[in-house]
Amino acid sequence: MKFIDELRDMYDIRTLCKAVKLHHSVYYYHKQNKENSYKKANEELDKKIIEEFEKSKKRYGSPKITKVLNKQGIKVSQKRVARRMKVLGLRSITVKKFNHNGNKKVDDKNKENLLEQNFNAEKPSEKWVGDITYIYTKETGWTYLAIVMDLFDLKIIGWSYGKNMTSELVISAFEKAKAARGVTEGMIFHSDLGSQYTSKEYEKMLLENNVKHSYSKKGYPYDNASMESFNAILKKEEVNVNTYTTFKEAKLAIFEFSDRYR
Which NCBIfam families match (predicted)? Predict the structure, then answer.
């Protein structure tokens, strides 16, 4: 098999198989099995990486997650964990990592926590909070849910579900919240320092709506405790007890679950 793989770019597969007295169908069968096995192994590893990432409240990067997995008996290199985290779009909030918008690092010097763990609001659209959570589907792999909550009544007023974790995803969730409840001048929107929320596009949108952006401090997920609480309920009562085959199936389930919090 290795002989054929090494020369397949220079010679026809059937010719190579004939040279080693191997029927070409056998070669393709083993090739497909190998690819399926590798894909399945990645899917299982991705699940464990996501699990440990969320357990750490998004604080663990590839070195710590690798260490945790190795302690659990899962032998994997940091290089592979880092590669899978990049594919999944996972970035630790305690370190500076590359984002989807290019090799720009998040500068948090002027990013204040205006909320300061005061989750009380006296009126609608005074304080909103947002976050992204991860949902696995058999057909698509990892998918992403961006949510907006109004702290006045802890209602989910906007959400967007997609196959990629981009600034467009969180912008869509905000726009839906805006259409549902409206924004007030000087309103606070609180999020973590993820690259989607700190992107130029997102910051520009908030500025155009006269909304003040508040940020969780690095390593302090409880700065967004209300949103973390909802995500925990979502995972416990819906996501972790169900298996989604398709993107559409997961989207419908999320809609029905989130509708209870509208």
Answer: transpos_IS3
